[in-house]
Backbone:
């Protein structure tokens, strides 16, 4: 690891160097935007050469992806905290999606996930196996007893994929004119929530689930 540059404070480890590169990239993105941020900008911000940055990251998109990932970790913690007290699966999923729709566009680091075409969380990468597995891990953290609700491990993967597909569509391709929050919540309650309101035990594979009444278009989760 080179000890030149770094503002006169060379990192003590590779891990520290990587984190300082990520932090510098975040500052560059704040100033220039993700599209105009280059690896040269990051190197200049740190006072190092491009080759020094290349020792830790192969591409600028890899660094930007790490900036987004770190923002996502904090976001998930806040999401789970927001859902505390909502033990109903349908209510938790709908409220969680509404939280995502409100928060992601206003968070610079989270918004990067929508701009990165090879992102593993949203965009074209939203249906990748690792992204779905990550989504299922997020659902595990919801204050919901999934097993008692008849939702198994395989179901959580499927639910995570549906949620990510819906979020991607709603965030990247809003309706014209745009739906307000109440309309989107009603849409989710009408068409998504009923799938999580089984009235009987979990059915065998190949059998239809029993669903609670869907309610009206403008119904609530209660």
Residues:
């Amino acid at each position: 690891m080179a000890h030149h540059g770094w503002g006169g404070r060379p990192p003590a480890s590779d891990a520290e160097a990587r984190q300082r590169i990520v932090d510098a990239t975040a500052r560059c993105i704040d100033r220039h935007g993700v599209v105009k941020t280059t690896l040269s900008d990051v190197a200049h911000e740190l006072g190092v050469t491009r080759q020094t940055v290349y020792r830790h990251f192969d591409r600028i998109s890899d660094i930007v992806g790490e900036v987004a990932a770190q923002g996502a970790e904090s976001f998930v913690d806040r999401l789970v905290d927001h859902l505390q007290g909502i033990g109903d699966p349908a209510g938790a999923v709908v409220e969680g999606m509404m939280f995502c729709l409100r928060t992601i566009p206003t968070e610079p680091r989270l918004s990067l996930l929508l701009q990165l075409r090879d992102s593993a969380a949203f965009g074209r990468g939203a249906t990748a196996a690792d992204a779905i597995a990550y989504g299922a891990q997020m659902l595990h953290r919801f204050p919901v007893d999934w097993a008692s609700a008849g939702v198994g491990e395989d179901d959580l993967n499927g639910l995570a994929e549906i949620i990510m597909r819906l979020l991607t569509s709603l965030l990247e391709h809003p309706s014209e004119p745009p739906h307000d929050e109440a309309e989107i919540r009603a849409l989710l309650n009408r068409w998504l929530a009923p799938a999580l309101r089984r009235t009987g035990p979990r059915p065998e594979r190949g059998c239809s689930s029993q669903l609670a009444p869907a309610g009206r278009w403008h119904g609530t989760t209660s």
Notes: Residues 65 and 119 are 7 Å apart (CA to CA). DSSP finds nine helices and no strands in the chain.
